[in-house]
Amino acid sequence: MDHDWRKLHPAVRTVWSVQAALYGVILVTILVSMVLLTSLNALWLVAALPLIGFFAWLATAGVGKRYHRWAFRFAPQALELRSGVWFQTVSAVPYHRIQQVDIEQGPIERRLGIVKLALKTASAASNGRVPGIQAVSYTH
Asked: Is the pTM of this model over 0.90?
């Protein structure tokens, strides 16, 4: 078995960018609606500019940093995961503890041909998730 660290599929950056942009649009829409529908001062919109900037960064440069920090490998005893931009996490999901393996795919991931691998164990603390894996279809 190959024990080298593997990168995620590059298409996962598009998924993360779209998600960050959607979160930003939703938050800005909520804030604008609150200002327009209530007696809140319009200065709240100016206060929201850093929030808007954060989501714009997250949808662009932040996605690249997140992508480059993500890696996984099939070590001899466990699936090992590395991730995190500001707070880096290294975790291992022991093979003998895995009870269920799910393949998850949202509409954007389906369009881009990637999936999420979700590993479930008896303890929620040792569950693992690997986003951005190339989807493989099998036909019989």
From this structure: no
